[in-house]
Amino acid sequence: MVSLGLYKLCDQWFRNSSGKGNIGLIKDYSEAHVGKYFCLLLGIVMLGVVVNSLPSVREWIAFVEDRASRASSGKPSKPQVQPKKGENEPLLKTNKAGACKFPDR
After folding, report:
1. CA gap 61, 26 in Å, rounded
2. Which one of 2, 11, 37, 104 is most buried, counting C-beta atoms within 10 A?
3. 67-101 residue pLDDT tens
């Protein structure tokens, strides 16, 4: 949505000298001001670099990454409710030969 809006705002930069938006040919492309659009995109990227370099943003990103790594490691971040008796048993058990059987209940 943002990209489409940005493209619509910069629509004049994608037109050749005769005002046509079809810049498929090299001649028409060279008459258009597409370079301005690329400079605008470069400016957006540079703004992103500056914002992500701010100490408060770096600390927040480190906090989010730490939280995500704890969540993916399987270690609970807060106490969990203890399962009822029998709920933590596997549905199938194997015997010494490796064959599966249902547990006795």
Report:
1. 44
2. 37
3. 888 888 766 555 555 656 655 565 556 666 656 55
- Residue with the larger pLDDT of the pair 47 and 87: 47
Let me know: does 100 contact 92? Beta carbons within 8 Å: yes
Q: Answer with the residue of higher pLDDT: 59 or 84.
A: 59
Strands (E) in the chain, as ranges, are 93-94, 100-101
Query: Among residues 38, 30, 28, which one has the least CA distance to residue 7?
Result: 38
Report the DSSP beta bridge partners of residue 72: none
For helices 55-72 and 34-53, the axis angle rounded to 10 degrees is 80
Q: How far apart are CA 101 and CA 92, in angstroms?
A: 6
- The answer to whether residues 42 and 56 touch, using CB atoms and an 8 Å cutoff, is no
| DSSP labels, 2-19 | HHHHHHHHTGGGG--TTS
